[in-house]
Specification:
By secondary structure, this protein is mainly alpha-helical. About 85% of the residues lie in helices and about 0% in strands. Pfam families: MFS_1.
Length: about 425
Amino acid sequence: MLKNLSREIKHFQEQPHDFRILTLTNLIYALVLPVIDIFVAAYVMRNSNDPTKVVIYQLTIYTGIPLTFLLNGFLLSRFNIKTLYSAGMMLSGVSMLVMMSLKTLDLWGIASAGLIMGMSFGFYWANRDYLALAITNDKNRNYYYGLETFFYTIIAVVIPIAIGWFIEVYGDKRTVNGAYRIVTGVVFMVTVAASIVCFQGKFKNPTDKKFLYFKFHPYWKKLLGLATLKGLAQGYLVTAPAMLIMLLLGKEGALGTAQSVGAIVAAVLMYIIGRMARPEHRLVIFAGGLVFFFVASLFNGIMYNATGVIVFMMFLLLAKPLLDLAYFPIQFSVIDILSKKEKRNEFAYILNHEAGLYAGRFVGAGTFIFLAYYFSTEVALRYAIMIIALVQLLSVVVARVIIREGKEIIKSLQEETIQSEH
């Protein structure tokens, strides 16, 4: 076992310097992601007891993300990408400070905190996606995302348990909101540490300054369709687990424990898949993630109790990393192809891709609000995810078309290169 471990460490050390720095930066920042994704939603739920406020908070986040992607494109011509990337990480701590300072969780306060968090995600993901695209190639992207997913999933075991029980124990002795404030302070310190590591990289800004386009190759529209389908689930899944667990299990300690069930196995599995999988395996991996997601939704919808939530979380811990492990390399492969064909800045595609995600997120969150308003919160929590998971199965068909057409475009580009050389 030690021999295998040393071989994997050596393989990581053989990667380019910026590959290693970006991975380490994201690893440190990953320590705060469960707090942002789960416990902030739990804080809103605990202090308002209103699931629709949680979804509204999420919608303001989703509104801030594409606007900040656009702003980031303009700022890249004035600021170093490391500065913008670090700003995104640190803004997440600022957003939590704003949330914790609110005396009452009214809609304006929640919207303000959500918009700042959206800006944080916007700066973070816009620059992270560009850097991941720039420092990887089609051959090592599965490894890159497998490695990231491995660490993210391990962190998803430790952090939710530690924070969940800290909030519960500290809250019993003093105040729950006081525990949340301490967690917020720790989050801010972690974002500073991640920023310091980020500045050790030799990351470069895009050379082409133009990034705003409105007309794209028809091939790109297929990826936007896939992005919209992905956004459907994101619009619901970021806050639904917290709401389900707070309603059906009741406490943050249970929230952390449920998040951690099965995560160790999932982490090892993701690393092995990322290390061994080749580009031609991405469709199978993607389909597997969608099937796990659909099965998770069935357990939640049929059982809708504490056991159902735990089973839901177990399948989700497999579904989410499998989907990301396949989706990002597919997305980056399309950007690689079209940036060469259309001779455009890669960030132009990253920005436009966010529009597809936003459309899906808005529909996904809107589906929840519609069902909660016209029927009940239980109907929304029970059946919205089943509807979304069923629609998302169409992603397999879209992904298959994208991969097939990508091979055809690469072949035509190679033929054009040969002809121009002769």
